[in-house]
Design a protein that fits this description.
Blueprint (H helix, E strand, L loop, with lengths): L2 H9 L10 E6 L6 H12 L12 E4 L5 E6 H21 L6 E13 L12 H11 L2 E14 L3 E5 L3 E9 L4 E9 L2 E9 L4 E10 L5 E9 L5
Antiparallel strand pairs: 1-3, 2-3, 4-5, 4-11, 6-7, 7-8, 8-9, 10-11
Helix pairs in contact: 1-2, 1-3
């Protein structure tokens, strides 16, 4: 928005103000165009900035950010109307707020026949129970973890030592739809998924052999944290 283009035009009508009983009023003005409004009001109303018109009011910028106008009733009415029109135009030109979201990722490796050690954070207890329900008792470790925030409709990427994640998300208040690609060493996946706030999801699981030649279960997990 270019507020300095609309302010002088909108304030031109104040040149016709008549002399009457003075009143002092303070006006709240959006910080984005406060200085432009202040200068335009000052140029129109004050004698030292408009010598051929004569004084019709005094304008001051308060430490609070409010604009103080000392002038007759008809001046105050026109100032209020102009500031209201500027505020409405600014609101119409302001783009809707962007929506970003953070997704958390884990790469888990589980070895059959053993209990999970303390290496897995408790936040993943539900995920571990789900995996053990499908594959039996296992000892899980976290091979890598990462968090990635991106704007709705935009693509975000991150790289760690062993993990590469690309996500494109679309958010609403209660649902997040995401296209996710994950690469971890020689393993990877691409998936589309819908999540609710606080939900964990296992994106993929399968048998692999780790660097030490040990066979186990590799699982990719994602979480959309609930808003605090």
């Amino acid at each position: 928005m270019t507020p300095h283009r609309i302010v002088p035009v909108a304030l031109a009508a104040l040149l016709a103000c008549s002399a009457a009983r003075a009143e002092i009023k303070a006006y709240d003005v959006d910080a984005r165009y406060r200085q432009e409004v202040y200068r335009a009001l000052r140029d129109v109303l004050q004698t030292d900035h408009a010598p051929f018109i004569g004084a019709v009011g005094e304008v001051s910028l308060l430490p609070t950010g409010q604009i103080l106008v000392d002038g007759p009733d008809d001046v105050q009415a026109q100032v209020a109307a102009v500031l209201d029109a500027i505020a409405k135009k600014a609101a119409a030109e302001t783009p809707p707020p962007s929506h970003s979201a953070l997704l958390r990722y884990w790469v888990l490796f589980g070895v059959p026949g053993q209990q999970t050690a303390d290496a897995v954070p408790t936040v993943l207890d539900g995920v571990v129970r789900e995996l053990e329900g499908a594959h039996g008792e296992m000892a899980f470790t976290v091979l890598d973890t990462a968090s990635l925030s991106s704007e709705s409709g935009e693509t975000g990427q991150l790289h760690t030592k062993t993990l590469k994640v690309t996500q494109r998300i679309f958010t609403s208040k209660e649902t997040l739809n995401a296209s996710i690609t994950i690469d971890h060493q020689d393993e990877g996946l691409s998936v589309n998924i819908s999540l609710h706030p606080g939900e964990f999801a296992v994106l993929s699981e399968g048998s692999v052999e780790n660097d030490q030649g040990r066979k186990g279960l590799l699982a990719f997990v994602v979480n959309w944290p609930a808003s605090r």
